[in-house]
Specification:
The strands form two sheets. Strands 1, 2, 3, 4 and 5 form a five-stranded mixed β-sheet that branches. Strands 6-7 form a two-stranded antiparallel sheet. The chain has two domains: about 150 residues, no CATH class; about 90 residues, Herpes Virus-1 (2-Layer Sandwich). Helix 6 packs across helix 8. It has nine helices and seven strands, in the order αββββααααβααββαα. The protein is elongated and about 80 Å long. About 30% of the residues lie in helices and about 30% in strands.
Length: about 250
């Protein structure tokens, strides 16, 4: 795994949206045209920050930037979208990754439903469905939305260390004899390793084996082997170890 792909694997993104303004009105149909059932115009500002969770319980946070983009227009042709909050929510969620100020950073995550669910401002979907129910479903509407999204990118050094140790152990075939037997006891949880083939890993250099989930929790506290206290930080790419030199 490359350093760049490892960093993304160890990074989760959280989003929280706020609705700053909402206005909805009926739109008169143009002569000779079949109007969409809904036009949504979204103006969105974005704040971005980053958190780094280091081994040992240290957290560092950096505010990166704030961006404001112009309004973007979306059309909805299917009236079924307006008949339920679930359908309307899904339609709005699909619009958001297309906003330029969001697509630049997170457009490649467009299929991550949980991330984009967090970008839908509370009250927006209910407001659209409520207005349509009051005005009638067979009409054309325009919805203007002003919203703000706070994105937080969270990097886990413990997970990066876990992946680095797995990669080093696989390359050196460290602990192959232990992992082949799948036997013994995890020194972290004191449960048997037998039968946990998919959840057992051996550490590089010392070949001690533990449950993978237990190892991740251990690495959140210390970058050592739980059994022999061998330093595992040496297996983390150097550019990530530099976080520990920052004050």
């Amino acid at each position: 795994m490359s350093v760049g792909s490892q960093h993304e694997t160890c990074t989760t993104v959280r989003a929280r949206a706020r609705m700053m303004g909402f206005k909805m009105r009926l739109e008169a149909p143009r002569k000779g045209e079949e109007p969409p059932c809904l036009v949504v115009r979204i103006r969105c500002s974005v704040s971005m920050s980053a958190e780094t969770h280091l081994v040992g319980g240290i957290t560092r946070r950096f505010d990166q930037e704030r961006r404001v983009g112009g309004a973007r227009r979306f059309t909805v042709q299917d009236p079924a979208v307006l008949r339920s909050e679930a359908a309307c929510h899904a339609a709005v969620r699909r619009m958001l990754p297309q906003l330029p100020q969001l697509a630049e950073y997170y457009g490649h995550r467009a299929d991550e439903v949980q991330l984009w669910d967090g970008c839908v401002p509370p009250g927006l979907v209910a407001g659209i469905v409520r207005e349509v129910a009051a005005g009638g479903a067979h009409r054309s509407y325009v919805c203007d939305v002003w919203m703000h999204v706070d994105f937080v990118s969270v990097y886990s050094e413990a997970k990066a260390l876990l992946l680095s140790c797995e990669g080093a152990a696989a390359t050196a075939r460290a602990g192959a004899d232990i992992l082949a037997r799948r036997a013994g006891q995890c020194a972290i949880c004191m449960e048997e390793l037998l039968g946990e083939a998919d959840g057992v890993m051996g550490l590089p250099g010392c070949s001690h084996a533990f449950h993978r989930g237990c190892t991740l929790k251990w690495f959140q506290r210390a970058a050592t082997c739980p059994s022999c206290r061998r330093d595992m930080m040496q297996y983390l790419p150097e550019m990530y170890r530099l976080w520990h030199t920052l004050e």
